[in-house]
Design a protein that fits this description.
Rossmann fold; single chain; alpha/beta; seven-stranded parallel β-sheet; 14% strand; Short-chain dehydrogenase
Length: 261
């Protein structure tokens, strides 16, 4: 067995920014990146939970692998400050994981308020668009970059209840494909992870709805919900040498849900 530093999953020397990484999939991703050798900026809306996550990562791996920076994913100026501070801390950004998102409303199209639609698009689409605009020039100058967007299988599916959320997640998938096509020749890879229902606060709308949970368990091949580490492992692959020939792809991490949908 090769040592980690000789493996396809070695991230030593890579500088990663993971948004929404105080908890859930984002936190698991930041932890696994650090485990595989990367330097990580942990970002969340509130600095306290982000600092706690960074401290836990550093304690676990016995090195200053992570630092915390607060940011509001729906505010362009806040994201610009996040990028500036991340570059100051790490010297650059090689890997961007666009994980932060919101899911504040469940309801059909005709009942979706304009305010909800705008809020969802600002956080789930515009935030990622701004982040990519900010990091891509530096990646292109260096001739290396990895962007991972955490979308959702909701972006594949028609839904009578997740109208605004599904639209925002489908937009992230197409954003990634367009950026992959535009920047692939510069050794920049842009891919998407589309989780199914994972045991995080984001999935509360499903986990608290008995009918939705029955549907979920019926279509999952093992009859269980996902864990954050399932998506984090795919993020490591996409950021590490193992993912070098993947570009513009959407990887469903859903226990076969879409297959049986």
């Amino acid at each position: 067995m090769d040592r980690l530093e000789n493996s396809l999953f070695d991230m030593t020397g890579l500088r990663a920014l993971v948004t929404g990484s105080s908890r859930g999939i984002g936190r698991a991703t930041a932890e696994r990146f650090a485990q595989h050798g990367a330097q990580v900026v942990v970002s969340g809306r509130k600095i306290g939970p982000a600092e706690e996550t960074a401290a836990a990562i550093n304690a676990t791996f016995g090195r200053p692998a992570a630092q915390a920076v607060a940011a509001n994913i729906a505010d362009r100026d806040s994201l610009a400050a996040l990028i500036d501070e991340s570059v100051r801390i790490m010297g650059g950004i090689d890997v961007l994981v666009c994980n932060a998102a919101i899911h504040p409303y469940v309801g059909p199209a005709m009942e979706t308020p304009d305010s909800v639609m705008r809020k969802m698009m600002d956080a789930n689409v515009m935030g990622n668009h701004w982040l990519c605009q900010m990091v891509l020039p530096g990646m292109a100058d260096r001739g290396f970059g990895r962007i991972v967007m955490v979308s959702s299988i909701a972006g594949h599916m028609g839904s009578g209840t997740f109208y605004s959320y599904s639209i925002s997640k489908a937009a992230d998938m197409e954003m990634a494909r367009c950026l992959a096509a535009e920047y692939g020749a510069r050794n920049i890879r842009v891919n998407v992870i589309a989780p199914g229902t994972v045991k995080t606060s984001m999935a509360a709308a499903v986990m608290n709805d008995e009918a939705l949970m029955r549907r979920e368990m019926r279509r999952n091949t093992t009859g269980r919900l996902g864990e954050p580490d399932g998506s984090a492992g795919v993020a490591v692959m996409l950021a590490a040498p193992a993912g070098a020939y993947l570009n513009g792809q959407v990887i469903d991490v859903d226990d076969g849900f879409i297959m049986s949908y």
